[in-house]
Amino acid sequence: MITEIPTSDEFSSAAYAQFDFAWDIVISFMTALDEAGQYIEVGQDDEAQFWEAARQRILTSLIIAQQGVELAIKGKLVAFSPYLLLGSPSDWPKDKTGKGIEFSEFKTIDAQDLIKAYNMVSPKPFDTKFVDLFDRVRKVRNSAMHSVNAKLRISPKEVILIILEAHEHLFPDQSWVMARKEFLLSAPDVHVYFDNDHIDGALVRECLAVYNLLSKSERERFFNVAAAVRKYICPFCSYESAKLDGPVPNYAVLKPNKPTSTTLWCFVCNDTHLVSREHCSEAGCKGNVISDDYNRCCTCGEEQLPN
Ligand SMILES: [Zn+2]
Ligand SMILES: [Zn+2]
Question: What is the pLDDT of residues 134-147, one digit of tens each?
Fold first, then answer.
């Protein structure tokens, strides 16, 4: 008998934990560089040396992200049957006590067979783009794990894109930003702070850093922020970011994108904010999108004077 059989959900949360950890490593360097730039001028050489010093850690984050991808696929297989993960019976451990063997003692099928197994049992096979991504990441991961190659380089953006893309394929109904917020809310450090007041501001800082790193089409694909539409300051994110002396988050869009539209949508707080279409009271600002709740212009960010 096989005992302690894991569920699909358990694999999914383990996968999420790996994605979150990998993301956390890369983001911590990006925000450290961002924050340094607020106080001192970081030259190109300094920045290159910064990333050179972070090289091994970025590679480690890729290895962790790849583990997350494998766990997520295992979770999808377990949804069909957990026994799909068990390799050949000739490799199975012996039940010496007669009380059964725990599932975790079995060797599971090789990473390269995970996709094959899933595509065999699922009515909807994996997208070929995901299969390409999986193979590519597995190759880099193998060279990073099994040898020392001074030339092996992975940029922070590559790791970010791998996580966003893998997450999109593996958990198509879930928003990565929302999942990340959940993780920040359950991170160990919340237990040493008096409250969770800093979480929204921290999320703004990292999402803006990633937003600025991505191309227009990547922003549209992963964050639903259309390239061609005007961007406004999200009043909520701006308020939260200011608490931490953070950056101004101008990534919100009118929804629908019409001159008369009175709702502003933001991918980070995942909320719509009511706005009035009135002229900004700040001299020189041509903005006409004013947050109702915060009484601030969403173009220049200034508080509105009573008229
Ligand atoms: Zn927002
Ligand atoms: Zn204004």
Answer: 999 999 888 888 87
Helix, strand, coil percentages for the chain (3-state, nearest 5): 55, 10, 35
Say how many Å lie between the CA of residue 272 and the centre of ligand 2: 19
Average of per-residue pLDDT across 267-290:
96
CA of 304 to the centre of ligand 2 (A): 8
Report CA(257)–ligand 2 centroid distance (Å). Answer: 19
Residue type present at position 132: D
**Cα dist from 270 to 153, 224, 235, 257, whole Å:** 34, 11, 12, 17
Query: How far is the centre of ligand 2, averaged over its atoms, from the C-alpha of 277 (Å)?
Result: 12
Distance 247 CA to ligand 1 centre (A): 13
Distance 199 CA to ligand 1 centre (A): 13
Enumerate the domain spans of the chain. Answer: 2-174
For residue 30, what are its two tokens? 């990006």
Contact 167, 66 (CB under 8 A): no
Residue 12: Cβ-neighbour burial (10 angstroms; 0-12, 13-18, 19+): buried
Q: Are 55 and 83 in contact (CB under 8 A)?
A: no
Residue 42 pLDDT exceeds 90? no
Distance CA 235, CA 291 (A): 7
- 3-state SS assignment for residue 264: strand
The two tokens of residue 270 are 């995942």
Ligand whose nearest atom lies closest to the CA of 225 = 1
pLDDT tens digits, one per residue of 206-252: 999 999 999 999 999 999 999 999 999 999 999 999 999 999 999 99
Please provide the average confidence, as pLDDT, over all residues in the chain: 93
Q: What is the DSSP letter of 107?
A: P
Helices marked H in 81-175: 111-121, 128-146, 156-170
Ligand 2 centroid–CA 285 distance in Å is 5
Local structure of 231: helix, strand or coil: coil
